[in-house]
Design brief:
Blueprint: H1 2-28, E1 44-47, H2 58-61, E2 70-73, E3 76-79, E4 83-85, E5 88-91, E6 97-111, E7 113-116, E8 119-129, E9 134-137, E10 140-150, E11 157-160, E12 163-165, E13 170-174, E14 178-182, E15 185-187, E16 191-204, E17 207-209, E18 213-225, E19 228-230, E20 234-243, H3 247-256, E21 260-262, E22 265-266, E23 275-289, E24 292-307
Parallel strand pairs: 1-2, 2-5, 3-6, 4-6, 5-7, 6-8, 7-9, 8-10, 9-11, 10-12, 10-13, 11-14, 12-15, 13-16, 14-16, 15-17, 16-18, 17-19, 18-20, 18-21, 19-22, 20-23
Antiparallel strand pairs: 23-24
C-alpha cells in the first residue's frame, strides 16, 4: 500500500514539473527566425525590441562584441554609421529594419562579415569594404551613390539575394579580383553593375531591370551567365581603349580583359541564334594641358561579342521576392 502511495506522489510531482517546464521555456526563448547565413558559435547580442538588456543602437553594442559574435537587430530605423569586422549582423526584416547613413561617406564600414536582412540607405557608399571576405544577403541597398564599391584591394565576396534600387551612380562597382554576385535584383539605377579590370568575377542569375545601363564593362573580365536583361535603356555597354603608343604592345591584353556571355535572357532577342553585343574600341593620346594630363580620343571602331546560346525565357530570380 505504501509503495502505491509513493508511486502516485512521484507521478503527481512529475506532471506538475512538466507543466511548469512547458510554461517557462516559451517565456524565455527568443522568437528569432533562423537564417541560412554562416554564423559561428559566438555570443548573440540584441538591438531594438523590448527584451531586457537589449541595446538601442548597433554602434553601442559594438563596444562589447568579440570576433565571431552575432548582432540581431529588431525592426526600426537606425540613424548611424556602424564600423565593424568579423561579426554577423542580422536584421529582423529587410523591409522594416533600416540603417540610414544620414548622407555621410558610408552607411556601414566593414570587413570579414556577414550582413543579412536590412534596408541600407542614404550615403555615398552603402557598404564600404575595408578588407576581404564579405557575405551579403537578403538586403535592400537604396538611395546611395554606389551601393557597394568592390575595389582592387578587396576580394573573396559573395553578394546574393539582394535588391539594388534607386542608387544615383551604380548598384555595384567592381574592380575586385575574386567575387561572386548572384541572385540579385538591380532596378532603376543609372548602372546596375559597373565593372573594370576583374579576374575571377562571376555574375550569375541576376535580374537587371529598368536601369539606364544594365552592365557597363570597361576592359572587364568576368563570367556573365543566366541573367535577365529586361526594360533597360541599354542592356550592356562595353568599351575598351588604349593609347596610340601602346596599341601594338597592349592589344593581346585587351582581348584577355573581356566578359564571357553565357545563356542570358535578353528581352529584345527572341531567337535561338547568338545575340550580338556591341563593343566600342577607342584609341587616343594623352596631352598635357596646363598641369593636367588629358586623354583625347583620336578614333574608335565597333567590335562585337556574342552570347552564343541566349535563353528563350526569363529566369526566376529569388532576389526579387
Amino acid at each position: 500500500m505504501n509503495k502505491h502511495l509513493s508511486f502516485r506522489k512521484c507521478l503527481v510531482v512529475g506532471i506538475i514539473l512538466l507543466f511548469i517546464g512547458t510554461g517557462i521555456i516559451p517565456s524565455i526563448a527568443h522568437d528569432v527566425e533562423k537564417t541560412s547565413i554562416p554564423t559561428s558559435g559566438g555570443k548573440w547580442w540584441y538591438v531594438g525590441g523590448s527584451g531586457p538588456g537589449n541595446y538601442t543602437t548597433i554602434t553601442e553594442v559594438l563596444n562589447f562584441t568579440s570576433d565571431g559574435d552575432t548582432i540581431f537587430v529588431y525592426h526600426g530605423t537606425y540613424y548611424e554609421n556602424p564600423a565593424f569586422s568579423k561579426l554577423n549582423l542580422i536584421g529582423e526584416d529587410r523591409n522594416t529594419t533600416i540603417i540610414d547613413g544620414g548622407g555621410k561617406l558610408y552607411v556601414i564600414l566593414t570587413e570579414e562579415a556577414n550582413i543579412h536582412g536590412f534596408t541600407i540607405q542614404n550615403a555615398i557608399d552603402g557598404i564600404m569594404i575595408n578588407g576581404n571576405n564579405l557575405n551579403l544577403s537578403n538586403n535592400i541597398i537604396t538611395k546611395c551613390q554606389i551601393g557597394i564599391p568592390l575595389s582592387l584591394a578587396t576580394s573573396q565576396f559573395e553578394i546574393w539575394n539582394n535588391v539594388f534600387l534607386n542608387n544615383t551612380v551604380s548598384g555595384i562597382y567592381v574592380e575586385s579580383r575574386v567575387c561572386s554576385i548572384h541572385d540579385n535584383y538591380f532596378i532603376s539605377n543609372p548602372i546596375g553593375i559597373d565593372g573594370l579590370g576583374g579576374g575571377t568575377v562571376s555574375i550569375v542569375h541576376n535580374q537587371f531591370e529598368e536601369n539606364d545601363i544594365g552592365i557597363r564593362a570597361l576592359q572587364f573580365r568576368a563570367t556573365i551567365s543566366r541573367n535577365n536583361f529586361i526594360n533597360n535603356d541599354k542592356h550592356v555597354q562595353i568599351s575598351s581603349g588604349m593609347t596610340l603608343l601602346s596599341l601594338l604592345f597592349s592589344l593581346p591584353y585587351i582581348f584577355y580583359l573581356k566578359p564571357h556571355w553565357i545563356n542570358n535572357y535578353w528581352d529584345d532577342w527572341n531567337r535561338a541564334s547568338p545575340r550580338p553585343i556591341r563593343e566600342s574600341f577607342d584609341v587616343g593620346i594623352y596631352v598635357l594641358i596646363g598641369i593636367h594630363l588629358v586623354y583625347i580620343k583620336l578614333f574608335s571602331f565597333p567590335m562585337f561579342q556574342f552570347d552564343w546560346h541566349p535563353a528563350q525565357e526569363p529566369y526566376d530570380i529569388p532576389g526579387m521576392c
